[in-house]
Every structure is written in C-alpha cells, then in structure tokens.
Amino acid sequence: MRWVALFGGLFLLPDVLAVKSQDFKTCSQSGFCRRGRALSTRAKEASSSWKSPYSVDPSLVTVSPKEAIAKAAVKSSLYPDIKFSLEVRVHDDGVVRVRMDEVDGLKKRYDEAASWALVDEPTISNTVSWTAGKKDLRAVYGVKKEVELIVQYEPLKVSLLRNGKEQVVLNGQGLLHMEHFRNKEPPKEEKKEEETKPEGEVAPDAGAEQVVMQVEPEAKVENPRAWFEGDSEDAYWEESFSSWTDSKPKGPESLSIDITFPNHATVYGIPQHATNLALPTTTGDSPTFSDPYRLYNADVFEYLASSPMSLYGSIPVLHAHSADSTVGIFHAVGSETWIDIGHSSEKSTETHWISESGIMDIFLMPGPTPEAIFAQWARLVGPTPLPAQWSLGYHQCRWNYVSSDDIRTVQKRFDEDDMPVDVLWLDIEYAEEHKYFMWDKKNFPDPVKMTNDVAAVGRKMVVIIDPHLKRTSNYPAYQEATERKLLVKTKSEDEYEGWCWSGSSAWLDMFNPATWQWYIDLYKTDKRDTWSWTESTTDIHIWNDMNEPSVFNGPEITMPKDNIHHGGWEHRDIHNINGMLFSNLTSQAVMSRTDPPQRPFVLTRSFYAGSHRFGAMWTGDNLGTWEHMAVGIKMVLANGVGGFAFAGSDVGGFFGNPEPEMLVRWYQVGVFSPFFRAHAHIDTKRREPFLLDEPHKSIVRDLLRLRYSMLPIWYTAFRETSVTGLPVVRPHYVVFPKDKAGFELDDQFWLGSSGLLVKPVTEKGATEASVYIPEDQVYYDYFSNHAYRGSSKGKNVTVPAALHQLPLLLRGGSILATRERPRRSAPLMKFDPFTLRVALSKTGSARGELYLDDGVSYSYRDGNFIWREFVAEQPQKRTLRISNKDLGKAQPEKAVDSAALTKFDPTNAFAKTVKDVRVEKVVVVGLSGKPSSVKVEGSGKQLAWEYTLGVAAGEKKEGTASVLTIKDPKVLVTEDWALSIQL
Ligand SMILES: *[C@@H]1O[C@H](CO)[C@@H](O)[C@H](O)[C@H]1NC(C)=O
Ligand SMILES: *[C@@H]1O[C@H](CO)[C@@H](O)[C@H](O)[C@H]1NC(C)=O
C-alpha cells in the first residue's frame, strides 16, 4: 500500500496512474547488471572464439566414496592466484546442487540464502557414484540410468542429460563470472597511465594472454582482461542513483551465470512479474522487453500491467518446458538479480542470471514432468501447508474500516444482505500513530469486544503489522527493540532511521536470532516481562505489509544496500529474503498464541522461495483496470510455479473506482483465486458488495455463495497441494504437458484435480468467451449442464459469458462434493450435508475426492481427518454404480509429505464428529437414458429421483446434457456405500 493519493475518476486512470519508473533502476542504471549484460554482448560479438576462462583443475577433484558429492578446485585463467571451489551433489531424488564460492578471498560471500529457503538439509544419494575422467566428471543415475550429469573441466561446464539429450547446461555460453574480492587501488595521478596498466593485483599468466590473443589482440596492450571484464572498473567501488549513493565497501562481487535449456522452448516462473505465464523474451532480435526480468523486492505502486520490472517478491525458480520433458532450476541467491531470456533457436531457451552478491548455489530439478518438478521443489522447500479452512472464505478489506462501529456495521450489512464473509480486515489506521499493536482508542475503544462480536458467528479479524517501528519513547515495542539492539544498522553501525507510515522509523532485524523470541512474545495475549499485545484475541490473525522493506525516503523506496544486518551482512546480500523472515516469525507468533497451536493466517506482500510455508500472498497494489484484472490471473499462476499456491490479487483493484461491471467480473476472478480478498485504497469510494445496485448485487451474492458451496473442493485441492506440491490453481501446461497448443495458455486454468476449468472474463462488454478444450472429452457447463465435446486435436468452444455468467466447465469424468446451503461464514458449514455432482466421461465413468478435517488445528497430522473417494463406473451394461470409499489409508504415489497419512484410522476423533453428515443430493450429468431403478446397494428401497432428458456423455453431439437428480439417498459421507442405477 502506498500513500500517493488518487486524482480524478475512472476515465482518467490510464493517464493519471502510472508507475514512477524513475524511482526504480533499469539494468543500465545498475552497475553490476550493466557489467553482466556487457559481458554477454562481448561474448556474442566474439561468437565462436569466446571461451570461458573458468576451468576445473583435474588434479584437485575429489569424490566422496559413499555419497554423491564431488568437490573440485576451479580457477580463472584471468586471475590464476584467485581460488574458487566447486561442489556438485546429487540428492537422493535426483536433484543436483551446484555450488561455487571464492576460497580464501579478501572477504566472504553470502552463502546462507538456501538455508532460509530449504526446509532441511537434503539427503545426498548413496547410490549414485562419480567417474572421474581426464576431461570430465560423470554421474549416471535414474531408474533406467537415463540421467547423466557431466562436469566438464575446461572450460567449466555442467550439463544434465536425460536419455542422452541435454536438459540444462550451466556455463555453456561462457558467461560464468564470479567477480573476486579485490583491494581498491589508490587513485592514480595520471589517467593515461592507469588505462595502460592491467587492473587488479595480479599479473595475467600466459594462459590468459593466449586467450586474449585469440579474441582481440589489441586489448592486450591496454588491459589483458578487457575482452572478458571490459576495460573500465564500471561502478566497482561506489554507485549513485538519483540522490542516493551506495558506498559498496566490499567492492565488486557480482555473479553472472548462463543457464541454457537446449531442448526446451518455453519457460515459466521467476515470480513476481506482471506479464504472461510463458515468459516473453528480453534478448534476441525483437525482444518483448528491453530490460531483463528483475528480482529485487520493491514497493512498486501503480505498477505496469506488462513489464519485467521487479515487484514485491522474488522466487528464483524457473521451469523449462517442452512436449518431451520439463526441467526446473532454483538459484538460491538473496541479492538483487536480473535475468535475461532469449531463444537462439526455435527449440531452445538461453537464460542469463546476473546477481549482485552471494555464492553460486543452483539446484537442477530434473523433472521429467511438471508434476515431478513440483514434487522435487516441495521436497526442497516444503509444500504449501494446509491453511485454516476459514481462510479460504471471503475476506473483506479496505484502507480503512475506521472504527469498531464501522466494523460492526460492515458485518451487519453482510448479514442483512445474506452475503457470506469470513474475515474482516483492519489496515494501518487502527494503530495509534501507526504504532502497530497499539489501538487508536478514540476510534477503537473496545478492540477485544469488537473482535468477539465478529467471532460470534465464526468469523475472524486480520490486523496489519508492518516491520517498521515508530521511533518514539511512548512505544514499548520500539523501546525494547532499540534497547536490545534488534534493529537494522547503518553502514556506520548506528540504528538505521528511515521514513514510513509512522514517520521516523526503525526496522526490526529478523536475521538476528535475538529478535525471534522477543517478537513472538509481542503477540502473547497474557501479561509478560516484556511488553505484549494483551488487547488482542486469538481470533486476530495478521497481515504483514511493507516488508520488502518499503522505506519512503530510501533508494528505490527501500533500504540502502550498505545497511548492516546481524552477522555483519549487508542489506544487499539478503534483501530478497528479508520479507520472508518477517512473515515466518509472524506465523510462528500467531501459532504460539494458543496451546495446542492453531493454524495461523498471515498474509505477506514480500516473499522469497519458501515463503509459502508461512501463509498467503497477494499481488500488491494493483490498479482497478481490466489489464490489471487479467494480469493478476497470470501472476497467481506464476506464483504457483514458484510453489506459492495460496495467492490472489485485490478484487476490484487497489487504486481507482471500478464500475459495477468491472467489479462483478473481478469477483468472478476472486471466486477462483486461492486467496479471495477485496481491498481498496483510502481515496476510493466504498465498494463493499452490499453497496451494489441490482442486478450487480445479486450476481455478486451468487458468486460469494458459489465460492462457499465449493469450499470443500478448495480445501481438498489444498490438501492435495500439501502432500504433492502441485499448485492449487493449475495452468494448462501442468495438466496437459504434451499439448503444444496450450503452452502459452494463461487465461484459463484448473482448480486442483477437481476437473473444474475456469476462464474468467476480463474484458468489458463480453457476452461470450472461447474456452480451449485439449482433448476428445465431454465438458459440461457448470451452471447449465450444456455438454461441449472437445477434440483430440484441441478445440475452442464458445460459451455464454454475459455478466451473470462465469465461464466454468466441468470435465467429464469428475465428481464434485459441494455444500449448497448458504451460511454466513465457513465454520458454520461444518456439519452441512453434501451434494455430489457426477459428471460422466464419454465412457460413462467418473471419480472425485473429498478431504475434511477440523479446519483449524494440527490434529490432522495425527490422522484426524477423512479422505473419501467417489467413483462412478459401469460394472455391467445399463448399470451405473456410484460408490463412496475410504482413501485415508491410501498413500498417494506422489506424496511428498506422507507422514500425516500413515497415522490414519477411519474411526479417528474427527471422523466421529462428522459421522452424521449426509449426502443430501446426487446429481448425475450425461446419463444415457432414463433409469428404471435407483437404489442404495443392499437395500430394496427405491430412492426418489427426477430425470430430464438430454445429451448423453457418450454422444458426440453438443447440447444440454441429461440430468438425473437423486434426492436424499440417506447415505453418510464417512461411510462406505454404493448407489446402483439401472437403465
Ligand atoms: C522459519 O521457518 C522454519 C520452518 O519452516 C523454521 O525451521 C525456521 O527456524 C524459521 N525461522 C527463521 C528465522 O527463518
Ligand atoms: C483457439 O483459439 C486461439 C485463440 O484465438 C487460437 O490461437 C488457437 O489456434 C485456437 N485453437 C484451435 C484448435 O482452434
């Protein structure tokens, strides 16, 4: 959220609202990015004569006898006295980790990025063994020995192959450059002389000269390393941007590395950017973007709807995809990073990663499918944990609900209009002078009572806590933090002071272990030795905003890079990780308010690889425009690629006053976002859904109810994510990885494994939409049961999409479990009966799953849950059998986290609490004729049912499908049973 006020109305939006680009660097304004790109330009110009100066010393290669770890000494022919180490490990699941660092350097490179991202130290394979040859080091592994890893010595190159085909290659283009630490040379008297002397402290050896000779003989005279490093010390020791100067006390230490995918033409990931899911190019003949993608967490308000600029979070994970295979990479670096993407041929992708500081620490995830990569990624960083079930409901936010009574009124209006909502939010104005944890008592005289009033119908509150603390004597949180020295320091080791919401502020240093427990204790609702938030309740959950961190008067609206964190690390080294530590500790704090702990809800704006373990994210301060609505969908999908499944964007757009049509469409987007929150800027008009006029109000009410009826589907999808790592909302390439026609598709997506295919409308005035069906299968319109038939060649179908119509198809072969009784909040639905919707496939079968637990505690980890499987099949001609059976004991093959599943016992305590929950209705879509009998197996009694004639699933024609509605079959959701339908 930013402070800039809005002028004018909606029509002025595109003109008035635009990112202040001059606040943020382009690559050419960033010294190390400039150097990295210049290196790649020189390489391209030299073309075939270009050769990486880095090589492995074969005499210094060691392999561990029992484990798949290889270590080698690396040197650069440009600086023979500088030593580098290379370590390559193969994990037991085939993931490869490649680390390189400078050895005995003048200073130390930051090497802890991975330790914050990873859940555990990965286990090294003890079955893979290395073969060290004269020219390279090789390891072969995989079930069929299909994977080969080759570390070539000279020049250094690391390649991963599958079935002899190159999947990913490091330094194949020779752009690896780890700038070693050096001493700043005293300024020379005479400029001329400086230019003729070689740079650095060591003389080039003969080898380097040779290379120089090949490439550019003239360069030798002036600077023998110029062919590689350029001929000036460009921004080595100091750098200015706008009115700020970065002092760079450690000098140059940037890292450049090319990562090539010779057989993969499409790449996805590296969130967060506002662009297509299939990442457009930044290099080559006519690149889409002229700048590389930037990862440098920043408060980029009013951001562009199509840009490679940095946004609030960074996950340096990339998937490279082709119809044959998918591979993934993760570059564990916490400093500012720029990534160029280009294609030198139709089938390959070249990427170039330029980071400001830190070691090289790259993970190669071999795939070979998107599904396999999600599992490999989830084993490294942990899957998205199961969120509190209520947090999948609707969240109502605004900057600001201005008083306790305002909150009560908003809640009342939702109830009066029969609109469900689970969470009411408070933005910064609840806090006296923006001192978080301290209520503004004038407007919020009774915070505990207010929260209890909200909680009375099962609802929660979310309150904002930002990482900046007002520097004032009447703020205990600040006083204690400064006394205990828990705050970020300047380069001269003073407390860093910057400007944020609270005026003059200081920032908690979450890299300091001493901050952790103290911060967790702040949230305790009982009185303690240290100050704590006693005026709070366990129904209050937390929103962490501004944690990039946002500093209004700092360079690029963040902290100076030469600020100092715990351990003496510069802010530059950890910038992109900073926001993650804050939400990590907040989630621990919220969790530890109750004993036993309850699942915390924490929303974070800033994030890094691994942040998904601590809560949800949203896409920040978007604009109320159609473009932003559309790109928000793509951004949520891209975050899923990075493992951050619990994601959404502000419904309605943060800035601007969306017209009713736009707002309705945005609710349709929100209903199908994992995280569903409406939010608005302080200068916008109120736009809670109950304020809409008809017909918009009723349309939105129906949409909110649709979300709530589908909460069991969302929760089951999250459960699957929490054991497999697969995203909750899935792009086409994840579900149909071999369908080339769908590689670029990012405006329609799948909800978990439910079979629901959504294509939200993001255009004004639309009355129909085109949905791509990739297969020869029947798909049903969720609302009208109109049957569409796809084709094995792929087919676009036109579906009705007037304002009240959301393009939502259900794939034939799916069974959905929904709860159709409107309630005020999700927890009130706990014992509601289920409706099963059986959408028959073209061959007359279907299946689906339902996962349930108490929704708030961790008792599911002790086996307290139910996991049911519904199957429709035709044991004989003219018989359809629909059964409900237990899946709790089954170990999904794909499970990354199966610990919780092994303890399952069908008679567990949770299952007992829902033992009376019924299935109240079964709807079968696409049956081939009118039944002659519908019974529960083992009972002679006919059930009540209705049948409407229509298209059968097996027919090729389109039209409204037949629908059989079985009323109250009197079967229970926790019990095994089967319905038998005779035609
Ligand atoms: C962050 O979270 C993990 C659990 O995922 C925990 O092990 C770690 O200690 C936490 N703390 C910090 C400071 O990152
Ligand atoms: C479906 O529509 C898209 C977008 O108009 C088009 O690019 C694609 O070729 C179409 N696919 C088929 C199979 O007609």
UniProtKB/TrEMBL annotation:
The keyword Glycoprotein applies. Residues 182-200 have a biased composition (Basic and acidic residues). GO terms for molecular function: alpha-glucosidase activity; carbohydrate binding. It is found in: Endoplasmic reticulum. Residues 384-717 form the Glycoside hydrolase family 31 TIM barrel domain. One of its GO terms (cellular component) is glucosidase II complex. Residues 1-18 form the signal peptide. Keywords: Endoplasmic reticulum, Glycoprotein, Glycosidase, Hydrolase, Signal. Residues 834-885 form the DUF5110 domain. Residues 86-340 form the Glycoside hydrolase family 31 N-terminal domain. Residues 182-203 are annotated as: Disordered. Residues 725-816 form the Glycosyl hydrolase family 31 C-terminal domain. Pathway: Glycan metabolism; N-glycan metabolism. InterPro entries: DUF5110, Gal_mutarotase_sf_dom, GH, Glyco_hydro_31_C, Glyco_hydro_31_N_dom, Glyco_hydro_31_TIM, Glyco_hydro_b. GO terms for biological process: carbohydrate metabolic process; N-glycan processing. Belongs to the glycosyl hydrolase 31 family. This is Glucosidase II subunit alpha. The lineage of its organism: Eukaryota, Fungi, Dikarya, Basidiomycota, Agaricomycotina.
